[in-house]
Amino acid sequence: MGADGRGDLASRSVARRLVVIGGDAAGGSAASQAKKRDPGLDVVVFERGRATSYSACGIPYWISGAVEAESDLVTRTPEQHRANGLEVRIRTEVIGIDTSRNVVSWRDLESGAEGEEPYDELVYAAGSVPMRPPVPGIDAQGVYGVQTLDDGAALRAALDSGRVQRVVVVGGGYIGLEIAEACRVRGLDVTVVDMSPTPVGTFDPDIGSFIADAVRGEGIELVLSDACGAVEVGPDGRVRAVVTASGKELPADLVVLGLGVRPNVRLAQEAGIPLGTSGGIAVDARMRTQVPGVWAAGDCVESWHRLSGQRVVVALGTHANKQGRVAGINIGGGYATFPGVIGTAITKVCHTEVARTGLSTREAGEAGYSFVTAVVDSTTRAGYFPGASPIRLKMIAERRTGRLLGAQIVGKEAAAKRIDALAVCIWNEMTVDEILSLDLSYAPPFAPVWDPVLIAARKAFDAVEADVRSL
Ligand SMILES: Cc1cc2nc3c(=O)[nH]c(=O)nc-3n(C[C@H](O)[C@H](O)[C@H](O)COP(=O)(O)OP(=O)(O)OC[C@H]3O[C@@H](n4cnc5c(N)ncnc54)[C@H](O)[C@@H]3O)c2cc1C
Quick check: 3 pLDDT over 60? Predict the structure, then answer.
């Protein structure tokens, strides 16, 4: 006992405790970074599923067979996290957060046991909740989601059963189309139903119609401007057909839901952690919520859109990983910020690649921009080079200034990754005038001598100039 009476108590250092809700992209990154920065930190990760740090993005390719084993999709297992000093509790769901006492309550989903865990810092990384249309039959046997590894395993098992030939995918966004591809690659008859007049409704209609033609060219049936009105069940209790809102009957042995997601914020809301205008958890650039000691990252938060200035929810793994890293660095004593998003995304359906960055024309209009557009049809390689295939590229440029506001690409092999060059241009607020002179790479196997990016910039520049002359 010391002279001040505190003795051992004063000299004993009590480790700070970080509790993380959700053990995938955002939660896993936050936990790992925080522990790496501050090895003395006690880190407890709660994950209600059985896997941690897995790639949901890879699920369609596991279903198609391009990726062989479920384990290939797992970047870090619970055991690997434990070897790095994290306490990981899988199959354990957090069921409440008390921010006045700094504790979370949890339930073991195997044993039913319940308990509480105190925290000094809390990371909320509970991801998103898939949309389910409230239509008759939606819970029938044979209707599948693709949100988690368990969903993917169930879908794969159903497809492996040999009893499925006709698949209806509800939702023609990125995930719906990736699942359509996976089923098509397996030789199945695939129909995609989507409410928009063109698939992947975040693209402009002129690019969307090119996507629609390309997807149909892959042998996938598209039912557009229509919705899933009901799922019909046969006498055996299994799915028989999807009936659309307009009354079309689409025979189906299996239905996959790919309707997008909304942020999983229920527990946060119940705990009084404020949401933002978009419905995601409000965070600052360091990923702090408005409740001291509580951080949030991933699909459950809203982000700042660098072009529109709006708060937006963008459920993408690329953001979740970065945001989790930022939260972890800050919790571990460092300093990091998440600088916002510009709407870059990419996917492919069989041989058709699609990508976008920045604002679409609808988004640019809503954000108050006045703009011109340019669309070019070109080829992915020099026109004479074997394998050259069509590519369409659209640019949206601000009137007068010529600043690039958005770009969209659709084409075949090696077309879509060109979007990254344009994302860098948008990030750095470049004008189409600056872009058309960029020193981009060229050789016949990779591009025409004027890359489609440069041709589109030239055309967009002409449009900006013509507009200025007409004033
Ligand atoms: C089929 C598919 C394809 C995709 N493709 C792409 C792509 O190509 N590119 C891209 O950038 N993004 C893609 N995404 C999106 C990407 O997977 C997500 O944005 C990313 O996984 C989000 O990470 P997260 O950690 O925020 O949330 P999640 O990955 O959803 O993780 C949240 C975790 O929290 C757990 N959890 C939730 N509530 C609790 C609780 N109360 N207690 C304990 N645990 C809880 C969940 O079980 C889950 O494991 C795809 C998603 C899907 C489904």
Answer: no
Which one of 29, 32, 46, 48 would you pick to mutate in the ligand 1 pocket, going by the greatest count of ligand atoms within 8 A of its CB?
48
Q: Which CATH architecture has domain 17-56+70-129+262-331?
A: 3-Layer(bba) Sandwich (3.50)
* Domains 17-56+70-129+262-331 and 143-259 belong to one CATH topology: yes
> pLDDT over 70 for what percent of the chain?
97
Structure tokens belonging to residue 268? 């946060």
Give residues with Cβ within 8 angstroms of 6, minimum separation 6. none
The CATH number of the structural domain formed by 143-259 is 3.50.50.60
Across 177-302, the runs of DSSP E, i.e. the strands, are: 189-193, 221-223, 228-233, 239-244, 249-251, 254-257, 261-263, 294-296
Closest ligand 1 atom to 298 CA: 26
Full DSSP string of 289-343? -SSTTEEE-STTB-EEBTTT--EE----HHHHHHHHHHHHHHHTT-------B--
Atom of ligand 1 nearest to the CA of 147: 53
> What is the CATH architecture of 351-469?
2-Layer Sandwich (3.30)
Task: Give tens-digit pLDDT for 416-426.
Answer: 999 999 999 99
CB 170 within 8 A of CB 257: yes
Pairing between β-strand 352-358 and β-strand 345-349 as defined by DSSP bridges: antiparallel
Domain extents for the chain?
Answer: 17-56+70-129+262-331, 143-259, 351-469
Ligand 1, closest atom to CA 258? 1
Please name the residue whose Cα sits nearest to atom 29 of ligand 1.
24
CA of 26 to the centre of ligand 1 (A): 8
Cα of 56 to ligand 1 centre, how many Å?
Answer: 6
Catalytic residues: 57
pTM above 0.70, yes or no: yes
**How is residue 384 annotated by DSSP?**
T
Please tell me the distance between residue 38's alpha carbon and the centre of ligand 1 in angstroms.
Answer: 26
- Structural tokens at position 32: 């790992």
How remote is the CA of residue 156 from the centroid of ligand 1, in Å? 19
Tokens representing 76 are 């870090």
For 12-29, what is each residue's pLDDT tens digit? 457 899 999 999 999 999
